């Protein structure tokens, strides 16, 4: 075992009645396939690929044990023999690949987005539309019975275990915390009473499934909301859960309504492993830790320093199904790393779309987006080695085409080279590393520093133009003043800015630049936790304590012409974080702005009919982009097969998710 690079990660875990092949748990993720037509076949292919890739224990997305517990009226439920039979295709596919899989049972409680929502008390959550009905004692017992019945059915369906979702602010968590449990009966009031629901639940499930079935309990160890649990309470519950028959305790961090980032890319890697570690000496069953673990080394460090017995990773398995196999083969550099962007996974699920992955568009499309071997040998030129060009070149080469990739710069990665310099977006570097490796391995002929001409492209069977975008220079009088700099020059050339800065354009890049300009330098993990008011002792309820926030020395104005809300950035699950950070840093947001001129005094603007001069040292242009394509018209005129993709195709709202998918889909069809 010790000659492996990740001996702790790859060590088997003996659960007594069964063994897991390593310490990797693939955390629960809703994919959207659970409810879609033919979804189970696609889910089977999705999970089978991860089992083949070496995952120790897969946990499915959440299924409700009854109708009221569904997140949406049409969300998946697992409560009948019919459902158990339908799930066979999933469990069989995973077992055929030598994997193990547990079904997650999730009752949404007050997070249910329908009028039949129920909870411990009739208290609406700040993120819900519906006020739940308080459950009667009879309803509580019936719900416990529903969990037990679903667990029994999971066993019949061939699952190796169940995970009971007791964190993130769902029903079980709602019973545990005072915040959402104001009952006076035996299910509320004292902590002993508030623990009764999870404990009775585990006892009922254990009694029904027998001793040789995995029960994972996802315990909220750091609620990050007011009136959440303290560490002392967590320890008490964990000990009793162990006695009640839980096999493995998984960690939950933060309720959905918490206003502290817990998994987004801004969160430092392994930022919450210390939470699990606090419980480690208190219980003897295996403990799983999670959140922002995305490389084998980060996982190995956690396990070798005894912070946990297993690590849970969810999104990293969307990004790369072969994460574990590559770690086993000591090929960590070949892993397509999850960059924590949420753009194609959680942001999709929250708007009812199928999950996938920005860096791996084949995720959840295993049976549809297939790179089959090419039937004829063709020469393909890809021009531009940004995310779109790199992904297309790799996918085409994987199919067996002969691919040349031209890039006018002497480096790969295009706009990702800018993104990775934004504080909290360093992960983009990993994507450049991954695609660079794949270009090498798939034999793509990379020609850096070559601004290829139309004539040089004449001999190719297909030309793919992926020449990207350039920053827009809006026609504002005085735009060429020395105070003005575009975002690309600012980041690329590391231009030193003064203490008063105006940012024109409040899209994703304007928000990122404003964050960068007001960010404290060299934050340690402890600084980051402190900045968000997280109490490492967890003596305060929910792990929150009153704290002093970092105040930026620099004053920044972020502006857009559109009236109304601004500053949220593109993603549903990350927009609020951007907004909160700008607020914390004191960035002044101005919408409905017209830009009158720039001169030595600064930026002259009109807002709501009032003229103002922002006496700033610098003005940064983040006013969107325009396409760069100097090739396609000339190539088409020569009757060549030309495809324009990425920002060169459409510059408006260009984002890496769209352009990588577009490139891989094109390569699949060539
Ligand atoms: P964007 O989101 O399209 O925003 C462009 C901004 O410029 C808008 O605020 C727009 O607002 C303003 N603007 C447009 N034309 C203008 C003009 N002629 N004069 C003055 N202002 C003008 O583009 P972006 O910020 O450049 O971002 C590009 C893409 O990168 C985005 O689509 C995004 O998906 C991606 N991105 C994503 C993230 C992320 O965190 N996921 C971060 C950064 C970038 P008004 O027209 O109202 O003035
Ligand atoms: Fe990770 Fe982004 Fe892919 Fe989601 S979309 S799995 S966060 S890289």
Automatic annotation (TrEMBL):
<keyword id="KW-0285">Flavoprotein</keyword>
<dbReference type="GO" id="GO:0051536">
    <property type="term" value="F:iron-sulfur cluster binding"/>
</dbReference>
<dbReference type="InterPro" id="IPR023753">
    <property type="entry name" value="FAD/NAD-binding_dom"/>
</dbReference>
<dbReference type="InterPro" id="IPR013785">
    <property type="entry name" value="Aldolase_TIM"/>
</dbReference>
<keyword id="KW-0288">FMN</keyword>
<keyword id="KW-0560">Oxidoreductase</keyword>
<keyword id="KW-0479">Metal-binding</keyword>
<dbReference type="GO" id="GO:0046872">
    <property type="term" value="F:metal ion binding"/>
</dbReference>
<dbReference type="InterPro" id="IPR036188">
    <property type="entry name" value="FAD/NAD-bd_sf"/>
</dbReference>
<dbReference type="GO" id="GO:0010181">
    <property type="term" value="F:FMN binding"/>
</dbReference>
<protein>
    <submittedName>
        <fullName>NADPH-dependent 2,4-dienoyl-CoA reductase</fullName>
        <ecNumber>1.3.1.34</ecNumber>
    </submittedName>
</protein>
<dbReference type="InterPro" id="IPR001155">
    <property type="entry name" value="OxRdtase_FMN_N"/>
</dbReference>
<dbReference type="Pfam" id="PF07992">
    <property type="entry name" value="Pyr_redox_2"/>
</dbReference>
<dbReference type="Pfam" id="PF00724">
    <property type="entry name" value="Oxidored_FMN"/>
</dbReference>
<feature type="domain" description="FAD/NAD(P)-binding">
    <location>
        <begin position="379"/>
        <end position="636"/>
    </location>
</feature>
<dbReference type="GO" id="GO:0008670">
    <property type="term" value="F:2,4-dienoyl-CoA reductase (NADPH) activity"/>
</dbReference>
<dbReference type="GO" id="GO:0033543">
    <property type="term" value="P:fatty acid beta-oxidation, unsaturated, even number, reductase/isomerase pathway"/>
</dbReference>
<keyword id="KW-0408">Iron</keyword>
<comment type="similarity">
    <text>In the N-terminal section; belongs to the NADH:flavin oxidoreductase/NADH oxidase family.</text>
</comment>
<dbReference type="InterPro" id="IPR051793">
    <property type="entry name" value="NADH:flavin_oxidoreductase"/>
</dbReference>
<feature type="domain" description="NADH:flavin oxidoreductase/NADH oxidase N-terminal">
    <location>
        <begin position="9"/>
        <end position="333"/>
    </location>
</feature>
<keyword id="KW-0411">Iron-sulfur</keyword>
């Amino acid at each position: 075992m010790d000659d492996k690079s990740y001996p702790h990660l790859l060590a088997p875990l003996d659960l007594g009645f069964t063994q897991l092949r390593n310490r990797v748990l693939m955390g629960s993720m809703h994919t959207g396939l659970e409810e879609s037509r033919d979804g189970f076949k696609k889910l089977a292919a999705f999970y089978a690929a991860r089992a083949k890739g070496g995952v120790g224990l897969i946990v499915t997305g959440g299924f409700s044990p009854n109708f009221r517990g569904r997140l949406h009226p049409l969300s998946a439920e697992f409560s009948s023999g019919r459902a158990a039979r339908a799930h066979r295709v999933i469990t069989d596919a995973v077992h055929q690949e030598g994997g193990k899989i547990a079904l997650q049972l999730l009752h949404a409680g007050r997070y249910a987005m329908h009028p039949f929502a129920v909870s411990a008390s009739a208290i609406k959550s700040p993120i819900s539309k519906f006020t739940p009905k308080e459950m009667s004692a009879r309803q509580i017992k019936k719900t416990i019975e529903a969990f037990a019945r679903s667990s029994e059915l999971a066993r019949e369906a061939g699952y190796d275990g169940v995970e009971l979702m007791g964190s993130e602010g769902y029903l079980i968590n709602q019973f545990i915390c005072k915040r959402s449990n104001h009952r006076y009966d035996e299910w509320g009031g004292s902590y002993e009473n508030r623990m009764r629901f999870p404990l009775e639940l585990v006892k009922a499930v254990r009694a029904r499934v027998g001793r040789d079935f995995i029960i994972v309990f996802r315990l909220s160890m750091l609620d990050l909301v007011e009136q959440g649990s303290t560490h002392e309470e967590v320890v008490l519950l964990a000990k009793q859960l162990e006695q009640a028959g839980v096999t493995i305790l998984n960690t939950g961090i933060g309720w959905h309504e918490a206003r502290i980032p817990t998994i987004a890319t801004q969160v430092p890697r392994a930022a919450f492993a210390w939470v699990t570690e606090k419980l480690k000496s208190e219980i003897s069953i295996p403990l799983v830790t999670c959140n922002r673990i995305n490389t084998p080394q980060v996982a190995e460090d956690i396990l070798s320093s005894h912070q946990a017995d297993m690590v849970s990773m969810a999104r990293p398995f969307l990004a790369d199904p072969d994460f574990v196999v590559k770690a086993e083969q000591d090929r960590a550099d070949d892993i397509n790393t999850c960059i924590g962007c949420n753009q194609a996974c959680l942001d999709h699920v929250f708007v009812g779309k199928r999950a996938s992955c920005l860096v791996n568009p084949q995720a959840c499309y295993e049976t549809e987006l297939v790179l089959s071997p090419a039937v004829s040998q063709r020469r393909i030129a890809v021009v531009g080695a940004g995310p779109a060009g790199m992904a297309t070149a790799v996918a085409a080469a994987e199919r067996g085409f002969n691919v040349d990739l031209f890039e006018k710069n002497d480096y790969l990665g295009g706009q990702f080279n800018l993104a990775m310099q934004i504080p909290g977006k360093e992960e983009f570097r990993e994507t450049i590393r991954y695609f660079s490796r794949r270009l090498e391995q798939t034999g793509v002929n990379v020609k850096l520093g070559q601004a290829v001409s139309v004539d040089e492209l004449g001999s190719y069977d297909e030309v793919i133009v992926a020449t990207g975008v350039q920053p827009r220079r809006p026609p504002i009088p005085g735009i060429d003043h020395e105070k003005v700099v575009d975002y690309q020059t600012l980041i690329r050339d590391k231009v030193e800015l003064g203490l008063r800065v105006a940012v024109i354009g409040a899209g994703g890049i304007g928000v990122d630049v404003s964050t960068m300009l007001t960010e404290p330098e060299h934050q340690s993990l402890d600084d980051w936790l402190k900045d968000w008011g997280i109490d490492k002792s967890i003596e305060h309820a929910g792990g929150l304590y009153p704290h002093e926030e970092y105040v930026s020395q620099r004053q920044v104005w972020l502006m857009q012409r559109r009236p109304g809300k601004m500053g949220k950035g593109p993603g549903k699950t990350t927009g609020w974080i951007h907004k909160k950070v700008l607020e914390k840093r004191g960035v002044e947001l101005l919408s409905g702005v017209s830009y009158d001129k720039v001169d030595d005094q600064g930026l002259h603007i009109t807002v709501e009919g009032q003229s103002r001069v922002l006496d700033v040292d610098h003005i940064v242009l983040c006013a969107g982009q325009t396409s760069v394509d100097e090739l396609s018209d000339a190539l088409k005129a020569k009757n060549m097969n030309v495809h324009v993709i990425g920002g060169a195709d459409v510059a408006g709202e260009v984002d890496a998710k769209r352009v990588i998918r577009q490139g891989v889909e094109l390569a699949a069809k060539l």
